Amino acid sequence: MNELDSLVESAQQLFAQAQTPNDLENAKAQFLGKSGKVTELMKGMAQLSVEEKKSRGAAINLAKQAIEAALTTRRQALADAELEAHLKAEVLDVTLPGRRCGTGGLHPVSVTMERIEGIFGSMGFDVAEGPEIESDWFNFTALNTPEDHPARSMHDTFYVEGGTAHAPNLLRTHTSPMQVRHAVQHVKKYRGLIDAGQTMPEIRVIAPGRTYRVDSDATHSPMFHQCEGLWIGENVSFKDLKVVFTDFCKTFFEQDDLVLRFRPSFFPFTEPSAEIDIQFQHGPLAGRWLEVSGAGQVHPNVVRNMGLDPEKYIGFAFGMGPDRLTMLRYGVNDLRLFFDGDIRFLSQFQ
Ligand code: PHE
Fold it and tell me: Which conformational region is residue 24 in: left (phi greater than 0), alpha (psi within -120 to 50 degrees), or beta?
């Protein structure tokens, strides 16, 4: 084997040993680089005669081509191997079913809350929110509830530690504290007008939220929801309450023939007071009277606690139960189902 053949062979061997493209480029430099073996051979021809240059040059060129061919082949082989390894590493089974993207949805009671806000919003009511840990003052005293009222007892109310009459000391038992809380803010805003003997803009607000009582059975949960409504102005009467609430119920249940009944009742903070019952004219509950809200004309003492003159300002309030409205709308008979968080139950409302 002549010197050139063995050069080609040693290049082929070295290229075959290269395991990475980097190794291969280093091996290539040894033969084809600036001071590589092939380059050196070319330089060595300078002293030869023209005839000798021709034959020697042709032979070196052949060897060079053979080395380049070996290089190309190895380069391709290494690239193929790399691709192969890459494909193996990321196995993708295109026959597997795709992953579902869970869409989630609103809780049925949240859907009801949004409906309530939407309907009252269209009648010009604002939406206000208040604290769930409330003071004795806003929850009871400001609402004309006497010291010895049974609702204040530990059997009915969750008290929290500490607290004074005005500082938070209980979990609100209804959303009615929002009547005075909201009105006080409103009155503060329009104090100037009121003091100047002018008339302030009416208070028209609903206050939805969580409420708490020591109570638990199929139709009572220790945590439940209420939505308060309040409309105070110079000329707001019980008739307005009837119109507004009747309109609301018919829209909420999408039943124009729904019948409402205002049954005399008692609340310390309204006088006169009523329970509002509804009666469906068709469907599984048709003919039964179903209680949906307490209501009444705001008591003069409460109007006074709002910072207003009860001789000038008058209005009504109501407090309804969105949980119960949701049960009636969907025909659910156990309130606890709403708060168990069982996805099999909840997903039926999506
Ligand atoms: N707060 C009363 C309750 O929880 C409902 C109510 C609100 C009654 C407003 C009258 C006026 O039962």
Answer: alpha
Q: Where are the alpha helices (DSSP H) in 94-211?
A: 108-122, 136-139, 177-189, 191-195
- Residues forming beta bridges with residue 49, ordered by sequence position: none
* CATH number assigned to the domain comprising residue 265: 3.30.930.10
- 265-287 confidence digits (pLDDT tens): 999 999 999 999 999 999 999 99
What 3-state DSSP class applies to 49? coil
Residues 201 and 300: their CA atoms lie apart, in Å, by: 19
Taking alpha carbons only, the member of 168, 116, 182, 175 closest to residue 319 is: 175
Q: How far is the CA of 85 from the centre of ligand 1 (A)?
A: 72
Instruction: Say if 95 falls within a structural domain.
Output: no
User: Based on the domain organization, do 201 and 329 belong to the same domain?
Assistant: yes
Residues 60 and 114 in one domain: no
Ligand 1 centroid, distance to 225 Cα (angstroms)? 12
Residue of 203, 210, 231, 269 to test ligand 1 pocket, by largest number of atoms within 8 Å of CB: 269
Clarify whether residues 220 and 147 are in a common domain: yes
Query: pLDDT grade, residue 83 (50/70/90)?
Result: very high
Range of the domain at 265: 108-349
Distance 267 CA to ligand 1 centre (A): 7
98 in a domain, yes or no?
no
| Ligand 1 within 6 A of CB of 267 | yes
Q: In terms of domains, do 118 and 227 share one? A: yes
Does ligand 1 have an atom closer than 6 angstroms to the CB of 295?
Answer: yes
Please check whether residue 96 lies inside any domain of the structure. Answer: no
As for how many domains the chain has, the answer is: 2
- Is 168 a pocket residue for ligand 1 (Cβ < 6 Å)? no
Q: pLDDT category, 93, cuts 50, 70, 90?
A: confident
Ligand 1 center to residue 321 CA distance, Å? 10
> Would the CB of 108 count as within 6 Å of ligand 1?
no
Q: What is the pLDDT of residues 16-39, one digit of tens each?
A: 999 999 999 999 999 988 888 988
